Amino acid sequence: MRLLKAKGETYKAVDDVDLGPNSNEFYLRANVKAPRMAGFLVKVFVWFLEIPIFGSIMLYFLKSNNLIHKLVTFAELQESPLYVPLHSYEGKEEEKEVICVEYGASPSEQVGQASGCLQSILEAPKYSFSRWTILDYSRAYNSKLITPRKVIDRFLSAVHRSSTSSMQMSFFINFDAEDMLRQATMSTNRYEQGEALSVLDGVPIAIKDEIDCMPYPTTGGTKWMHKVRGCKDDAECVRRLRSCGAILVGKTNMHELGAGTSGINPHHGTTRNPYNVARIAGGSSSGSAAVVAAGLCPAALGVDGGGSVRMPAALCGVVGFKPSFGRISHSGILPLNWTVGMVGILAATVEDALLVYAAITSPKSSDQSETAQAKLCFPLLKSPKLIPNIKLAKYGEWFNDCSDDIRVCCSQALAKLYNSYGWKTIEVTVPEIEVMRLAHYVTIGSECNNSIARELEKLNKEELGWDARVALSVYGSFSSQEYLNAQRIRNRQLQIHKRIFSKADVIVTPTTGVTAYTIQKDARETGELDYINGVVFCLASNRNIR
User: Fold this and answer.
1) Integer Cα distance of 457 and 168 in angstroms
2) What is each CA distance from 367 to 84, 328, 339, 363, in whole angstroms?
3) Annotated catalytic residue, options 308, 329, 365, 541
4) What is the pLDDT of residues 215-240, one digit of tens each?
5) In this structure, is the dihedral angle defined by the CA atoms of residues 16, 21, 24 and 25, taken in order, positive or negative?
């Protein structure tokens, strides 16, 4: 293989990269050379890929044709590796129009402080069952209009309907009616006694099946994970939700091992998009996005390593929020990718996302090591000023690399922000977008492969989906040289983004480049290899490299 060594890219020093709007940095669109495969074709491809010598040659040329060797493997970089995306908080002044949380506050106290930021901007409840916000539930319970027990009765009825042969929405991998009714009864009793734990008390919240939540096994979307890794307790984020009185309504469906963006799962069914059941919900947190879009829950938890919360949120028309690394504890999460994966939130509204975030975050997470982060603060969204003088950084080439309908919609959103709040857009260059994507792919793939390597050695491959087998073959082919160069690119992008954020507060871009595509019949049993659509989805997830 050394004889076939490709010439690697030589990157200039970070300080020499021009980030201005007229930069001569070349925008390289995603270079994906892989046809869509499903059904028999993907099986044949896997068989060849798993032949020891022949498969290695296939993987070498697959990586070379998709520019991994040129842009990552043999690249020449000056930067050192960045192993964990933490850096000291560099705020120059105290933020205005926020409230800061005192260290040591309980989850319910944090939720109380966050709800105090919202009261004047939320509409009065309409008292229709679908699409209630968290505060709608709380108001209805306090006014005795309905009880948590009645809500869960209706919830279970809706879930059973969604699981019938005529619908097959495949929202959940596992749910326990008896456990939900027990939680709902306890919440109902608290309201009757005037002792609600928080505004989340009695609110149904779903949990992605990558997060430990008793009494359920944690499958990671597989047929086997729960057999080798038992669930013995709640994840820290689940424990905090439970302490606020939230009703945990089961484990949502996901793409197997989080190794895809469609949500097509050959073991647990394909989660369908509530807006059009013939189309995908996105992945990997497919079920969590879909149950929120369907109005079954105002919020759900997902896990996001490469857009796995934000992409299905965009495709299902809900809010997707991936917090900064270290804000949410990793305790009780499947360790599929340690340095890019984070618990995230899918919610019907920004306000609901804030309330759930207030419950599950901590001012000092155990994952933060000794690196100082900013104080935990919540925005005063009831303030009429609503954070003035925000500067939005836009890289035109990247922003416009999407379908026309998405480009128009997102451009209109920027115009509304300017007209309503005076938020100005400044043009910048975000260099090496494709390099970021490939470095992220090497990082998340290497970490996933390493995390389950011992299990894979003993596993019968027949228990894996065909598309997951391809993904794991590629993940296992990454070398230490490729992983370390990916972390050097990661450090490089951290420095570049620091320079951009010295001029602007936010980088704006469409979340996905296209809308949800149609579920093909041949993909339901085998999964599918459709890396071109997957890459188009990943417009915003490139920033996971930081």
Assistant:
1) 34
2) 10, 8, 10, 11
3) 308
4) 999 999 999 999 999 999 999 999 99
5) positive
